[in-house]
Design goal:
By secondary structure, the chain is mainly α. It has helices at 9-14, 20-24, 26-50, 58-77, 84-107. Belongs to the UbiA prenyltransferase family.
Length: 108
């Protein structure tokens, strides 16, 4: 939810609308959101590794979350915080990851 204001940060600044994104800045919001999601993926990977046999389908649980984590890192690395199209692309990719997580859930 903290990333929701990123795509329109220029409009918020132009109209003096105070949002968390305008106060903290795109780089910090993106970094915080990326770290938070990455920690969730690391936890899911650890849960898959440490779970007893039969608890999860381990290949999608571990492999899927590794893939999502790598995708997240790739999207974060390609982010140019001063470019609105880049920020919008980063935001879109965050949603793509959420939807991919729903697909992954059916496999684990």
């Amino acid at each position: 939810a903290v990333t929701k204001d990123l795509p329109d940060i220029e409009g918020d600044r132009a109209y003096n609308i105070d949002t968390f994104a305008t106060k903290v800045g795109v780089p910090n919001i993106a970094k915080g959101a990326t770290v938070c999601l990455l920690l969730n993926y690391v936890h899911a990977i650890g849960t898959g590794v440490l779970s007893t046999a039969g608890t999860f389908n381990k290949i999608p649980m571990i492999g899927g979350h590794i893939a999502l984590a790598l995708m997240l890192l790739n999207h974060f690395r390609s982010l140019t915080p001063t470019s609105i199209p880049s920020v919008k692309t980063y935001y879109k990719h965050i949603w793509d990851l959420f939807y991919l997580e729903y697909v992954l859930y059916t496999l684990i």
